[in-house]
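Narrative of activities, Objective 1.

The group set out to show that a structural description can be obtained from nothing but a protein's sequence at a throughput compatible with the screening campaign. Below is one input-output pair from the validation batch, recorded exactly as produced.
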Amino acid sequence: MKPRSRRALSAWGFTLSLAGCSIGPAYQKPALEIPAAFRATPATAAQAWPKTDWWRGFGSPDLDLLIDQARSGSFDIEAAIARVQQADEQVRISGSPLLPTATGSTSASWSRSTTRISGLPGNKAFETRTYSLGPDVSYEIDFWGRIRATQQSAEASAMYSRFDQQTVALTTLTSVATTWFQALALQDRIDVARRNQADADYILGAIRARQDAGTASLLDVSQQEALVAGIRAEIPGLQSQLEQQVNALGILIGRPPEAINVRPGTLNSLDLPEVTPGLPSEVLLRRPDVASAEAQLIAANADIRAARANFFPQITLSGSGGWQNVALATLFGPTSLFASASATATQTIFDNGLKRGQYEQAVGRYRELLADYRKAVIQAFTDVDNAMSEYRLATEQERLEREAVATAQRAADIARAQVLAGTSDIVTALQAQTTLFGDLDQLAQVRLSRFQALVSLYKALGGGWAEDDVKSPPSTIFHGVL
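Output recorded for this entry:
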């Protein structure tokens, strides 16, 4: 090998060995204020994290069916999956410059010209034919780590899209459960209203009988008729709300309202599975929204490194080779071989603050996402505490409301018996009925609040999600040769 060639190869090797150097701050996990325990959970409480199929704990086959339909047909989940695909392809795009770009080219040219030669009669024609075939190779040396930082930003963004897809799925599934429970509660309230109407109609009949006997007045009858009419007027409004909740399920599962075949039953037949969180630090590993916020932060950190690398020269190597000849028959002969190589370094001298602005913009974006990440962490703790408190208090409220219903039921039974016996006035019976009917309706609403609080707790705890279950985006280094 000639000394000049040897020196050239040594220079190339030295340059390539320095490729991939990174200029900029490496990502460091931000310092966070993590409490030792949740305020709403006793320190001695046993952990009971949600399972990935947490909805099955309610014991509702209809809910299981709706959840399965939502997982396969939700438009929001489908769109989130498509965003994951886009992010993965962006990783491929960003990582493609890490390997040389090779293109093949072939050409054939022909030209003819005529000229007059002094001393010779007429014009002389000249024809030229040229044939060439060979590859061209170009490679930008990532000396400052700009390309690698851009690829790492794309990889972090791809992870964000995965975490975001899990957040969308969790939100969709909890929305299905909440909507279904609202439909069940409305059906319970309709059933309560119909039972109340039947009971009020029965007492109205007794009062009319007393009027016929001369022991009750027209005012007594009118007051009871007003109570019956009021109860009857509530039912259409509740039925309208019920239809709207059932129709809302269509949007969540990706089907038109006419395709929703399930009919609401009752909340009273469902189970309330137990779930309690562990340590606050463990919650951060089970919340896809917290993971997505950190993934955005990692991507922004890589963008800072890429923006800083833009201040330095870009070094590009290029080469070409192949065969070139004036005769196609001898194109691949030894004498037709040719080769060339070049190296260029490009440095911006003046850009009117463009690169500085891009760098400062990347830094500002990182600071914004840092604040968003810390907020997401605090929000996670707040969601768990709120859901735990809401569920505990809703459970206590339901217990107290059941006691109120039992007391009101006894009072209404006594008042009814006295009305039928003619030993009590109608006003007392009306008050007892009104109290009982209001407590029964309130009980249905309080039980719904308890189910909603439990679903909120499942969502606050990540719904059985774990960061380790998410696959990383595809590798980009060898895409060009696979």
